[in-house]
Design brief:
CATH class of the largest domain in chain A: Alpha Beta
Largest sheet of chain A: 6 strands, mixed
Low-confidence stretches of chain A: none
Radius of gyration of chain B: 27 Å
Distance between the termini of chain B: 52 Å
Helix content of chain B: over 70%
CATH class of the largest domain in chain B: Mainly Alpha
Strand content of chain B: under 5%
CATH topology of the largest domain in chain B: MetI-like fold
Largest interface: A-B, 29 and 23 residues
Shape of chain B: flat
Strand order of the largest sheet of chain A: 6-7-8-3-9-10
Strand order of the largest sheet of chain B: 1-2
Number of strands of chain A: 20
Mean pLDDT of chain B: 84
Radius of gyration of chain A: 25 Å
CATH architecture of the largest domain in chain A: 3-Layer(aba) Sandwich
Strand content of chain A: 25-35%
Largest sheet of chain B: 2 strands, antiparallel
Bound molecules: adenosine-5'-diphosphate, magnesium ion
Number of domains of chain A: 2
CATH superfamily of the largest domain in chain B: MetI-like
Structural class of chain A: alpha+beta
CATH superfamily of the largest domain in chain A: P-loop containing nucleotide triphosphate hydrolases
Number of helices of chain A: 9
Distance between the termini of chain A: 38 Å
Oligomer: heterodimer
Structural class of chain B: mainly alpha
Number of domains of chain B: 2
CATH architecture of the largest domain in chain B: Orthogonal Bundle
Number of helices of chain B: 15
Low-confidence stretches of chain B: 1-10, 299-304
């Protein structure tokens, strides 16, 4: 039962800022994921919440308490580390109960809590094993068990799945989500993997260069990115970016259109015209996700524009096929139905769904 | 080069020669055995000779017979030595010194290593290097300044530090603490940082991190350091020779030599017996701790 609040948190190592002023409110029982490229300060932020790192300036609140000067053990938090950090000389039971034993809990209660956590994580049969005798996924569960047993105010996860192979990672991701549904505790989860962030988070915090780029629900950061960085970081394959010019007039009417090359000009959907009008005539960056470039079928709903593209590379993925083509020397990716995908070198009729387009001001990198 | 490739290319395709890896391994093994046996002979000859001699009477040792065979085996040397109050005093002094030195050294070096490896404080890196450099100074250089220091302390306070077995308890740690600290720094540094952090979050203080996480995890290193420390304090010869003189203050290595060699009369049988008996405790400790060490290493190593 606790909110976490960060007020203008700064952390500098040897004068280089790792975290450069972060403001974040995390609600009680919320699952917040900090995501960003390696070195953007996610771990440092998490460690400051844990108390393993002292903030250079700013305030950290857990619950209503200012915790800047509170040692980790009194912050009532639990942390799951990337390499699990299980005590190698202790059994699973001893690992999970270590914190409670240090706090001199009665034996019966320790037993009850450990067994309860073991049941949630399905590791009851592993309690007598040592970490060495466990697989990666099992160690991961034990590390979570050690956190659950403590019954803390806040769970902190630092890239807990990055040591697992791809298949297990997907499985454990779901497991973590399930555990959070059973044990609803405020959770701060750090990852560099945007898919993990999207699938787990109530709210995603996208970080870059020690700063927060955007905070929002997974859908918000995906569909309404506010900066070029977020638009490019979230989503896989990444959003296509093309330099463009916003020009007056579309198909002879009073609208606007984006001119991507001499041959390719897309009309701006009417509901966006008002928003983009002030920028008419400027050189901007046009952004469109691969899934908004699809094969042409039937008649076009409003906001969609057909065009022909000469395919450069074709990547079958099974349930869909990625097609790549060049627009003025820039590679653009589309996702099409495998049944109709052309071959490299062929010209294929495609459709761009401009209802999902983004325009980015290259000066500020803000999405307009 | 080209001809070789050409031959391989044009010559008839040779059939796969099965068992060539096993043959290679066999040859390597032969050589391993050859050298191992050579070393075993080289290193075991002195103790075997000591053992044979210890079973002989003085008359037989002096007689011109095969030195590698006992014609009239006797335990008289052992009986004589073990019934000598003096020899038992040496043994007792040695044991006391070793036990105290090992305890003091391990406590000091574990705590020093923990603080040097983990509590990053100003100058900790330099200090760690300094500890190692201290170990590199040979004892033969140290004993004269130490003697001076003792004399100085005597002048200052009147406390006589020369010619007491217990001064060795102050002297040996100058040899053992640096080395053990250095070993333990290495072991502690290899423990992942996340382990202390996990313990810190679990509510452990520094002392608890040390006693409940670091010491158990670094137990193999601690055992290695203990064995080293015991061996050094049990076998050191120079310090007791320089700092103790009275027969009741001597430890085994010096005691055997000074009391069993009377002028130019060497009581070889008893010297060999004393040396053998003196060599036994490190061996026993080594064997005992080694078992434990290996047990600790292999426990839980198998995947379930
Ligand atoms: N203990 C440290 N000393 C010096 N620099 C550090 C330390 N920890 C992190 N940094 C630096 O701070 C930046 C952010 O690191 P980190 O928070 O670990 O990034 P992330 O977890 O997002 O990959 C990096 O540039 C890193 O080099
Ligand atoms: Mg990190």
């Amino acid at each position: 039962m606790a909110e976490v609040a960060l007020r203008n948190i700064v952390k500098t190592f040897d004068r280089t800022p790792a975290v450069a002023g972060i403001d974040l409110n995390i609600n009680d029982r919320e699952f917040v994921v900090l995501v960003g490229p390696s070195g953007c300060g996610k771990t440092t932020t998490l460690r400051m919440i844990a108390g393993l790192e002292e903030a250079t300036s700013g305030e950290i609140y857990i619950g209503d308490q200012l915790v800047n000067d509170v040692p980790p053990k009194d912050r009532d938090i639990a942390m799951v580390f990337q390499n699990y950090a299980l005590y190698p000389h202790m059994t699973v039971y001893e690992n999970m109960s270590f914190g409670l034993r240090l706090k001199k809990f009665p034996k019966a209660e320790i037993k009850e809590r450990v067994e309860n956590a073991a049941r949630i994580l399905d590791i009851t049969n592993l309690l007598d094993r040592r970490p060495k005798q466990l697989s990666g996924g099992q160690r991961q569960r034990v590390a979570m068990g050690r956190a659950i047993v403590r019954n803390p105010k806040v769970f902190l996860f630092d890239e807990p799945l990055s040591n697992l192979d791809a298949k297990l990672r997907v499985q454990m991701r779901m497991e973590i989500k399930k555990v959070h549904q059973k044990v609803t505790v405020t959770t701060v989860y750090v990852t560099h993997d945007q898919i993990e962030a999207m699938t787990l988070a109530d709210r995603v915090v996208v970080m870059n260069g020690g700063k927060i780029e955007q905070i929002g629900s997974p859908n918000e950061v995906y569909h309404r990115p506010t900066t070029r960085f977020v638009a490019g970081f979230i989503g896989s394959p990444a959003m296509n970016f093309l330099p463009c010019r916003l020009v007056e007039g579309s198909n002879g009417s009073a609208g606007l259109s984006v001119k991507l090359s001499d041959k390719l000009t897309f009309p701006v959907p009417p509901d966006r015209v008002g928003r983009y009008r002030p920028h008419a005539g400027r050189e901007l960056l046009f952004g469109l996700r691969p899934e908004d470039i699809i094969e042409k079928r039937g008649d076009l709903p409003p906001g969609r524009t057909a065009f022909d593209a000469q395919l450069d590379v074709v990547e079958p993925m099974g349930m869909e096929t990625m097609v790549y083509f060049l627009v003025d020397g820039t590679e653009v990716c589309g996702r099409v139905n495998p049944a109709v995908a052309g071959k490299p070198g062929e010209t294929m009729p495609l459709v761009a769904d401009l209802n999902h387009m983004h325009l980015i001001d290259p000066k500020t990198d803000q999405v307009l | 080069m080209t001809t070789a490739t050409a031959q391989i290319g044009t010559g008839e395709r040779s059939a796969v020669r099965y068992g060539s890896i096993a043959r290679g391994r066999k040859r390597t093994l032969y050589w391993s055995y050859f050298f191992l046996i050579l070393f075993v002979i080289f290193f075991l000859m002195p103790p075997v000779y000591m053992f044979i001699t210890s079973l002989k009477t003085s008359a037989e040792i002096g007689a011109v017979t095969n030195p590698w065979w006992v014609y009239h085996p006797t335990l008289q040397n052992y009986i004589d030595l073990l019934s000598q109050a003096q020899f038992l005093t040496f043994f007792k002094n040695s044991a006391l010194v070793a036990v105290i030195v090992v305890s003091v050294t391990m406590v000091v070096s574990i705590m020093a290593a923990f603080s040097l490896a983990r509590m990053k404080f100003w100058g900790s890196g330099t200090l760690a290097t300094g500890v190692f450099l201290t170990y590199l100074i040979p004892e033969s250089l140290l004993f004269i300044p130490l003697f001076k220091i003792f004399a100085f302390i005597h002048d200052l306070t009147g406390i006589e530090l020369i010619n007491h077995w217990w001064v060795l308890v102050f002297l040996y740690p100058t040899l053992t603490v640096p080395f053990c600290t250095w070993i333990m720094i290495g072991y502690f540094a290899s423990i992942p940082k996340e382990l202390d952090e996990a313990a810190l979050i679990d509510g452990a203080g520094y002392i608890q991190i040390l006693t409940r996480v670091f010491i158990p995890v670094a137990l193999p290193g601690i055992i290695a350091a203990t064995i080293f420390c015991f061996t050094v304090s049990w076998a050191n010869f120079l310090y007791p020779l320089a700092f103790t003189t009275s027969a009741d203050q001597l430890v085994l290595p010096v005691g055997i030599v000074t009391t069993l060699i009377k002028g130019d009369v060497y009581n070889w049988g008893q010297i060999m017996t004393g040396a053998l008996l003196g060599a036994a405790p490190p061996l026993i400790i080594y064997a005992f701790l080694m078992d434990y060490y290996i047990a600790g290493l292999t426990a839980g190593a198998t995947k379930g």
